[in-house]
Amino acid sequence: MSNVNSHDPFFTPVTAEAFRREDIAALAAGRHAAIRVPEFLSQSTCDEILQALLAVEFESYGSARVYPQVMRFGVGVSDHRLDGGVDDSYWDAIETDRKNWLDLGLNFDPFHLCRANLGTDWPKAVRVGTRDGKPMGPGVAREPNQGFQVHFDDSRREYSDGLLDANLIAQFAFNLYLTMPEEGGETVMWRHRWQPQDENYRLPDSYGYHESVVGDVESFEIKPRAAEAILLDPGYFHAVRPSRSARRIALGFAVGLTDTGELLTWG
Ligand SMILES: O=C(O)CCC(=O)C(=O)O
Ligand SMILES: [Fe+2]
Fold first, then answer.
1. Ligand 1 site residues, Cβ closer than 6 angstroms
2. For ligand 1, atom 9: residue with the closest CA
3. Which of 139, 252, 253, 258 is the most exposed place for a label (fewest CB within 10 A)?
4. Which domain holds residue 77?
5. pLDDT tens for residues 205-239?
6. In sequence order, what are the beta bridge partners of 253?
């Protein structure tokens, strides 16, 4: 196997009109790398969410761990990780966050809508996961205008006691893109999963890695459009390229598949 250009047919994004049960199962089983749904919500619904978000101030993710800076409206548990668990500050933060989202004045809950739509073909519940009986935050509006570094997401490795009150057998990342710059903002995925030596490429104190960590393995790029949703396997190393003109805002949450077939989400 010397040909680095050879293509793994299982390392592919598929595009569909909705999140079909078979595609979600294929994502969990490693037969797809990502699922794209170009018109996940109507353009007008996305615009409504976007207009509400454009009227409020975003905050910055913790700058020691997340650089270049990424802006957010909402709470991500990664900012409240403590010794392989979750700091009490998370629960206060999501309570405030709940009010902040209500104050946007939307007459629907965008994360609820995303879960409902994600679950239209799924036989079991799609709901917010709990930890010690308490519901996690539903998700975050994220604005990585200067991109996300090459990284992977895996709650098993970040939360030693298991993050949710459930046995997870797969983890996905959900993003609904609300606005995308003409230039830049691509999501890139590499056919590389974490191995211990990768820590030699870790950027100081960062969530991310130097791009040479992925070497010359096969990769693909996705340039989502507004109103598109993507469910991806975040165990593959991935990155977001910097935006060069407009803002890049997406609603995002993690999704865990449980041993009873439920999809549990968290922000
Ligand atoms: O914004 C994106 O396209 C992907 C962001 C990301 O790293 C994730 O959802 O895990
Ligand atoms: Fe990620």
1. 148, 153, 173, 175, 187, 234, 238, 240, 250, 252
2. 173
3. 258
4. 13-266
5. 999 999 999 999 999 999 999 999 999 999 999 99
6. 174
